[in-house]
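Handout, section 4.2: multi-component inputs.
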Amino acid sequence: MITAIILVVIAVGSVLFHLLSPWWWTPIASNWGYIDNTITLTFWITGSVFVAVVLFMAYCIYRFQYKEGRQAVYEPENKKLELWLTVATAIGVAIMLAPGLYVWGQFVTVPKEATELEVVGQQWQWSFRLPGKDGRLGGSDTRNVSGENPLGLHPRDPNGQDDVVVEGGEIHLPLGKPVKVVLRAIDVLHDFYVPEFRAKMDIIPGMVTYFWFTPTRTGTFDILCAELCGVGHALMRGKVMVDTETDYRAWLDQQKTFAQLSGRIQKAEGTKPVPQE
Amino acid sequence: MPITVLFLAVIMAIAGGWLLQQRLTAKPWLEEGVIGDFDGTGSLSMPAAKIGLGVFLAVIGSLFALLISAYFMRRGYADWREIRVPHVLWANTATLVLTSVALQGAKYAVSRRHLNAVRARLTAGGVFGLAFVGGQLWAWQELTASGFLVATNPSDSFFYLITGLHGLHVLGGLAALGWTAERAWRGIAAEKIQLSVDICATYWHFMLIVWLVLFSLLTGLAEDFGTLCRQLLT
Amino acid sequence: MVDVTRGAIEAIPPAEVPDVELYHPHSWIEKYVFSQDAKYIALQYSITALAIGFVALVLSWLIRLQLGFPGTFSFIDANSYYQFITMHGMIMVIYLLTALFLGGFGNYLIPLMIGARDMVFPFVNMLSYWIYLLAVLVLVSSFFVPGGPTGAGWTLYPPQSILTGTPGQEAGIVLMLVSLIIFIIGFTMGGLNYVVTVLQARARGMTLMRMPLTVWGIFTATVLALLAFPALFVACVMMLFDKLLGTSFFMPAIVAMGEHMSYRGGSPILFQHLFWFFGHPEVYIVALPAFGIVSDLISTHARRNIFGYRMMVWAIVAITALSFIVWAHHMYVSGMNPYFGFFFATTTLIIAVPTAIKVYNWVLTLWHGNIHLNVPMLFALGFIVTFVNGGLSGLFLGNVVVDVPLSDTMFVVAHFHMVMGVAPIMVIFGAIYHWYPKATGRMLNATLGKFHFWVTFLGAYLIYFPMHYLGFLGVPRRYHEMAETAFIPPTVQTLNAFITIMALIVGFAQLVFLYNLIVSAFKGEPAPSNPWRATTLEWQTEETPPGHGNFGKDLPIVYRWPYDYSVPGAKEDFIPQNVPPTPRPA
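Output:
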């Protein structure tokens, strides 16, 4: 009896916890509300199954507790019931999978108008690069990385000269514009994760990975590294600031390009700056 | 990875086929009585040691299928430089074939109870097997002398790894072969060593087949096969 | 009506299948140390696994102390924290769960339940244990080398696992990889035994469809293990090469801490594919024996045949086959080809169907049963609740796009602990309470058992259920501390502290269990040979605990399936498998 009651409490308590707990997703700041919707749908289906199974168990324990002389039923199978349950489960699974795959299809298809933002991860900090006025990111290679060229850009690539390089772990983005985040690392695996954006992707040294999203509200959001990258993993933080168009322009104008940064360094070293082609 | 999945699919097909013969659709609660009433649902007629070998070969096959999958995955990267396989490898392949021939001969002889022939052929097999391992080490020595060390290029890394793992399994086979040969020389009756000889022979044939697959990979013969497959599929 | 008491069973004619040649030990060392009797080997595996598992349990307390009360304990810093979580994870998954289910329960139960005298390759079986012990010792030695054990996470992802910045990259990682390689070799030896024994040494009349689901579960899990562990083997060997010989299997061009390394062109994703090709079957290697055992626990203690036995077998076989094509659901956000996501999400959600069927069949076995709420049954019920909970949270993660925000958060930690930690552990405990009387001849104390159950079950649920919601919030995993983070409210720290307290309480309840285990061996109530009135063959042995050779002079002959409970018209509410059919009236 008590066992049955406890099971009912577990089922009901879990539902209540879900409805009343203060711990729920952070308010979304991107276009990926579809992911949230899929989660809600999944909750309805899985939640009902969990409650149904546990309450059924509670009933059985209450009703069929051992009694001397009671005969349990001898029913090795019930083809109709088993078939019905299999079909219902398959349908339930399909109902969750179909929208999930549909949204995934959107996730892997970057809109044509998206601008690029390169995120470079390293132990244990974030750097960024924007394509600059020509709209194209210059080439890069880990072998070019040096004190003067921490992002490893090709020094003579014309596309890269006007790239805006942002160090210090804080990046701004314009509101409402889709952005394709291209991800690079120069040492180990990392993952660029902003909970409010929902989208994230691992970063693999030697490869370029990507994901895309559109920021839908202004604000300041924490960047967290989401792939264990050594002892500084929890301290690898940054910030994304989503600005209105004017604020974004103002910020962008203050940033330095690759050419300016490498020219400044070479001036300090007394060598000729790289000519702009 | 598709290679490994394919390999596993083959294993699953064999297992599935066997399972189906085990009357998995039977309703056991309706069947009271002794096994004699239902055919083919008991143990297999093969000795346990042979089945054990079969399972063990499936495991080894899985290991090499995975190595081959990894090989193909890594090969797709830009820094891969095709290796030039040392010529002695061809001789080693021949030696391994001779080992299989010798052991197959030993298997034939033991079934006919010609103990002298069994001893001779087991010993020959052992000698050829040792020659194979020696030859492989010679190949390694040639490669390192030419400057192709294990870390020089991924193709070198795979060469050493693949031949090394295969060689280790061959050494294990040699140990089993040695134990069997020792019993044959000690004069133990042919019937008593027949199972060991059979198992040795099967194991060596399998290691030969694995070697032929690996060899065709390393020499690029597999490349042509792969191109052919791709042409057929597209 | 035939009286089915022992005396009425006619003399059993000699078995058709030749007896396994039984090994007879000649000295104390051969009998108890290098034993080739599967029952002793099972005991050796179990004690070693539980001992190393206890180490992992203590590590979990240290982990929770840091998460619940960050900064309070000066000896827990980022370095040691990552070492704790790595060793905790690896020990629990491989050295405890896999070894205990297959090496422990497999060795003890398979020969007894199929009516065999022992495993078919007893010498190899004996070797497999000592190789396992060697693997454990090598792993433990990594605590004592310079730099300590590896802190790369149990998944050991390169490049970080072998580079500066990750703890243990000097020696700890090498010892971990070597230990795993040794474990795999030993495990293959054991696995050969379990599979071939089930295929070849079944008693007369024991068809596959008359095997208890416990044997089905362990058998299929062993097949999985034999085919999947080579992937881990290859991954470990390659990583050792990368670390010790400077090859670039997994290592691309890297600038580590300002230093250009000599690696070139390797692929970290290759490691992930190899690791998870092993890693996903691994979770079924742990789950399938649990599925099998819990089926037998429920049917025995509910005095009811398992509902849908055929579907249960087919589901186990289907899950075994499908588990090889779902691995990349652990890699949805790894940066692999995004189109793989479609394939693996589909296969992953398909595998949910046979698993769900098993859940329905367990609860339907309770329907119209005659349920004894004893300790094994309580643990079986606890398994169902936690497995359903954990399995359902897996559906969130399996649906590729939903996994994107949730991966690498506490949601994943909550999911796998619930479904792989709590649920199988419930079965392990239930199984120990169930078979302890057979193995020792004494009953475990039921009052302590019930206390152990309620604290463990409710405590573990309270630990892991709320943890899912931290994941929804976005709290990442493998963070030794969150510090001030804008989107994380201070209530999260309160929840973390609560979870830690629950974890410590649950942990201490295990000490009660340990006490029960040890003291009952000497002072427990003497047990009859079949205290649960069960049908399967291990309960029908002449001696309790079973002697060498298990069944005395003659092997049993099997006449029926293992679930003849409450057969209509029968005198007792169970008919053991080796009882001949009642002669039908002419």
